[in-house]
Amino acid sequence: MAEITLRVSRYQPETDTAPTFQEYAVPLREDWAILDALNYIKDELDPTLSYRWSCRMGICGSCGMTVNGEPKLSCGTFLVDHAPGPILVEPLRNFPVIRDLVIEMTDFMHKLGAVQPWIIRDETEDDPSSELLQTPSQLDDYKQYSMCINCMLCYSACPVYGLDSAFIGPAAIALAQRYNLDSRDEGAAERLDVLSDDEGVWGCTFVGECTRACPKGVDPAGAIQRAKLVAANEAMKAFLLPKWAR
Amino acid sequence: MTELRQRLYRQRVSLFWWLSKPTYLLFVVRELTSVAVVWFVVYLLLLVRAVGAGPESYQDFLDWSARPWMVAVNAVALALAVFHTVTWFLVTPQAMVLKVRGRRIPGAALAGALYAMWFLVSAVILWLL
Ligand code: SF4
Ligand code: FES
């Protein structure tokens, strides 16, 4: 069977000060994604290789890597599309590397929590026996943003985040919008404090690369610009109108 | 935990990150062309000042504007400003979501409306001249 070479970034914190590349030849099977090739390497060639994965079907968001310079889900990127190779496999950019292809994501987890990505609502008036109904049009308002799988490819693609990791970043803002635009949610004002911060939506310069990188069609860049509009509107209102009229 | 943190390898963004992808380069060029927009604002302010200072200074301003290098500067600035406008119109539908009777207006229609407005305003100004 034909083979293809993977040049995989290796970093062993016990011995290395910087990553190096190691080459592996794997069978070029038509139905193999990069992740299948990595599993083959781990099982057959080199058990010391470390990387993250779980669902192998574009749902869990844990297998993000840099493939030939682009942020990709390794379970959804096929060997044949990069033949004849060699294929460069590196950890996601813009994150510290723990080992080989495994990155440190605590920063993203904090940012995700900061935007309170859940429905905030005063339920005292709600009738517990009835559902909160939504029209298809209301569902449409946020559905796209709800497709996010927290894979962080957008952070890896974003030069603003790469240069200043304090920026809250694309997915966190898209998820804030996911709840802000939900007709059942009442938490937009609470989230606005985080979003209208300097490190919030205003950090974004609309490079748009997050949207191109997103494997789920979330369009975080669009979400950020819409959030900017809301933040600017609220700031104008706070400036111009007396408290009771806002 | 601290021990682990110290051993993390920190990836750095190269100074030339904007050359690493065509889309990054397009973004940087779009941002730089805003200088042309600033130039036209300055030019307009100079014109207003010249008009305010009387017919003589207005004539001076016209003479100054007719010099070959000024014509060249303005031609280049116009090209850059057009590029700036077009690239912004390209991304506007992403930032603006308008709904009519529960349906989202398609991006192409929105961009079309922007172009129509642009040409309308330009036509009105040309007619005024
Ligand atoms: S917005 Fe897209 S690229 Fe970013 S984390 Fe969510 S799914 Fe991944
Ligand atoms: S393994 Fe779950 S998204 Fe790739």
From TrEMBL, chain A:
Keywords of the record: 2Fe-2S, 3Fe-4S, 4Fe-4S, Iron, Iron-sulfur, Metal-binding, Oxidoreductase, Tricarboxylic acid cycle
PROSITE patterns: 2FE2S_FER_1, 2FE2S_FER_2, 4FE4S_FER_1
Pfam family, one: Fer2_3
Domain of life, per lineage: Bacteria
Leading EC class: oxidoreductase
Alphabetical list of CDD domains matching this protein: fer2
EC number(s) from the headed UniProt entry: 1.3.5.1
Essential cofactor(s): [4Fe-4S] cluster; [2Fe-2S] cluster; [3Fe-4S] cluster
Any one biological process term the GO annotation gives: tricarboxylic acid cycle
GO molecular function, one term: 2 iron, 2 sulfur cluster binding
Signal peptide: none
Domain 2Fe-2S ferredoxin-type span(s) in chain numbering: 2-95
Pathway: Carbohydrate metabolism; tricarboxylic acid cycle
Family statement drawn from the similarity comment of this UniProt entry: Belongs to the succinate dehydrogenase/fumarate reductase iron-sulfur protein family.
Record-given protein name: succinate dehydrogenase
Protein's organism: Phytohabitans rumicis
Automatic annotation (TrEMBL), chain B:
Domain of life of the organism encoding this protein: Bacteria
Keyword Manganese: no
InterPro entries with a match to the protein in the record: Fumarate_red_C, SQR/QFR_C/D
Pfam families named in the record: Fumarate_red_C
Transmembrane segments: 24-48, 68-93, 105-128
Keywords tagged on the record: Cell membrane, Membrane, Transmembrane, Transmembrane helix
Tagged with keyword S-adenosyl-L-methionine: no
GO CC, any one term: membrane
Protein name, per record: Fumarate reductase subunit C
